[in-house]
Target: Phosphoadenosine phosphosulfate reductase
Amino acid sequence: MAEVFATATNGADLVAETKTALKEAYLADGRPWIVAYSGGKDSTLVLHLVYDVLVELGKHAIKPVYVISSDTQVEAPNIVNYVRDVLTAVQKDAERRNLPLICEMVRPAVPETFWSKLIGRGYPPPTRWFRWCTTTMKIKPSRRAIDKITAKHGSVILLLGSRTAESTIRKKGMESRVKNFRNLNAHHEIPNAFVLAPIATWTDDEVWDFLYTHNPPAWKYPHDQIISLYRQAIGGECPVVMDLNTPSCGGGRFGCWTCTVVKLDKSMEGFIQTGDAWMKPLADFRSWLKEFREQPHVRMNRRRDGSEGPGPFTPVARQEILEHLLHIEGKVGIRLISDDEIDYIQSVWSSEFDLNDTAIKLSAKFGRTIKRGGGLCH
Model:
């Protein structure tokens, strides 16, 4: 096999070399591929290259390729809508061409969602030291999907958009992994899963040059919107997180509009300042939530394990957050919390402190009718 994913002196050579290496890797064995797609520039490039390879292989494209994207249900609305549109376009075109490609959007189970944890169980908003959201909202849903595919096929290869040029931390992580003779490295947490990083040596400029010059892709949904979103957000993206060593979103990265890990959500501010002013109530809610968690009276005096110290939000605080969220929902005109989540929240409250169906009644004040029994309490 040729030197895999080597650097080239010009863009055309780099694209050709990467595609050749991808074709050789695809045909080398029968293990299905899983493309981790976040909607950012790097995962878009990987998806584009893989799709081109399948089209060019034609009848030789036999083994399945799964495209997995994670929707935490608190992603920036414009980002999650874009990702859904891309996946729909990719799936339709793949079916038209009879390509063995399956797109899947994975989501946390109701008890795992941000609102179920925050408002239902009273978890404080995530901090740099208590980042519970990454595990429950990103890693678990992705792992379930990958484990299901692995159980069916025995072993899988994950294609990630990781690049050595991205950051010092991620570069060191990539370089520390021991690769086998086909440039694969075993995933350190997922059994029978191997990782392939086809654009590891690409620079930012090379990524952008490809997306500009190879537009639209074969599935016909142009890259214009993602280019525009990056202009608004001033760079960066939220990766499909597979482990806690992958940095969480923040700063200029696309991420959850509720993220309280960072001081300033630069991407949200960028969206608001460049045409998406309707999202300002979301940014205001995030800022309010960040300040709200620091007030000592909103936290219980004991943690859930019984130890002394700031514990979950008090019942009154949880009710205040839900009411504020429903108010913001009315202002922006889109659904921010699902019926099942509210039902689950009520189930938790009823088991802990509330005998008056307060969450259901609060929702009714804002025109929401919640049917009981959908958000199972675990």
